[in-house]
Amino acid sequence: MSTVSTRSPASTDPDSAPEGGAPQRTGRRRTVRDKQWPAYVFLSPWMIGAGVLTLAPMAVSLYLSFTDYNLFDPPEWVGLRNYTEMFTEDPRYWRSVGTTLLYVVVAVPLKLAFALGVAMLLKNLGRGRSFYRSAFYAPSLLGASMSIALVWKALFNDGGSVPEALGWIGIDTGGWVGNTDLAVFAVVLLTVWQFGAPMVIFLAGLQQISPDLYEAAALDGAGRWRQFVSITVPMLSPVVFFNLVLETIQSFQVFTPAFAISGGDGGPADSTNFYTLYLYERGFTASHMGYASAMAWMLLIAIAVITAILFRTSRSWVFYADEEGGR
Q1: Which of 3-17, 42-56, 126-140, 277-291 has the highest mean pLDDT?
Q2: Confidence of residue 39 (pLDDT cuts 50, 70, 90)
Q3: Which domain range does residue 39 map to?
Q4: Which terminus of the chain has a lower count of CB atoms within 10 Å, N or C?
Q5: Picking from 10-24, 79-93, 179-193, 212-226, which range would have the lowest pLDDT averaged per residue?
Q6: Which family does the record assign (predicted)?
Q7: What CATH number does the domain containing 92 carry?
Q8: Are 197 and 137 spatial neighbours (Cβ–Cβ below 8 Å)?
Q9: Is the pLDDT confidence value at 258 over 80?
Q10: 212-223 burial, b if ≥16 CB within 10 A, otherwise e?
């Protein structure tokens, strides 16, 4: 007499093991992988581009920073010689660092101050806000071009409109471009003129602040300045922090205005010899690509350290309204 099996057909499927069993988990993982592969297909162009156009050149640059490479002959390994020369034997390197730091310390706060001031004016503007917002934003699109930088150089050169206008009110500065004390500030003003991008971000942040806060402060007798210090600044602090980080990173990489205003040589007397301009000179003019690569990596490290410091200090002055318990 034949026996009838009491096992159900499902029990022979390894993926139908009791709940919590390994085969069932394996099946779920396989299902998730089957659903994820289209995402990797669509992401593959970006991942290939990031690897080929970003990560691979960075790796090559890191290798070249330890070599003597002139763009024509094969790289020759020299170890830390480029870094040693940079820190101990190259006074122009340190002058470029000082010029860049001066530019960042002056240009970034001025640019953000102008951006915030104009954003506050536009916030209370009724008709025509869109037009003025577009008009103030336009320099951010045009200011990074070489043509605008050359026009700016003409404005601040000997006989330019700016020295002439200052002369009419009794301030005789002469041409800024040829003045070692004023040339860097011509670049600073060009940067400040491009305040449109942070202005738009500030305007968006200001529009998120509830009018009820200002009404309550006014009822308590707070004036405009007190409202600005006690309400606007704390509520806008995340936006200030965001703009501060972006503008600081961008300012350390300034190149086009300095190249155009100085004629590419950082003059007069290295007063506009910014870090990136000196990097370009060592790499492509003097053909010391290994040294330029070392400079590029030091710039990357410096920006990373300064950004980390900004993030660290933000804990004491950036206020997030939706954070539990506040600051």
Answers
A1: 277-291
A2: confident
A3: 19-64
A4: N
A5: 10-24
A6: Belongs to the binding-protein-dependent transport system permease family.
A7: 1.10.3720.10
A8: yes
A9: yes
A10: eebeebeeeebe
Task: Dig out the tokens for 168 from the structure.
Answer: 């009419």
Place of tokens 């940067």: 191
Q: Can you point out the beta strands (E) in 63-158?
A: 67-68, 76-77
Is 46 inside any structural domain?
yes
Instruction: Give residue for tokens 């806000």.
Output: 129
Instruction: Find out whether 290 and 65 touch, Cβ atoms under 8 Å.
Output: yes
Residue 1 above 60 pLDDT?
no
Tokens of 87: 């820190």
Residue 33's pLDDT is: 65
CA nearest neighbour of 64 among 72, 53, 54, 75: 75
Helix (H) or strand (E) holding 41: helix 22-50
| Burial class of residue 42 in the structure, from the number of CB atoms within 10 Å of its CB (0-12 exposed, 13-18 middle, 19+ buried) | exposed
How much is the pLDDT for 2? 45
On whether the CB atoms of residues 180 and 271 are closer than 8 A, the answer is: yes
With tokens 């070489």, the residue in question is 146
Per the structure, the count of domains in the chain is 2
Please report where in the chains the tokens 């860097």 appear, as a residue: 184
Could you tell me the pTM of the whole model? 0.83
d(CA 247, CA 186): 18
Residue type, 32: V
Is 39 part of any domain? yes
Q: Which residues fall within 8 angstroms of residue 268, CB to CB, at 6 or more apart?
A: 177, 178, 179, 180, 183, 262
65 φ, ψ (degrees, to nearest 5): -65, -15
Report the pLDDT value the prediction gives residue 25, as an integer from 0 to 100: 62
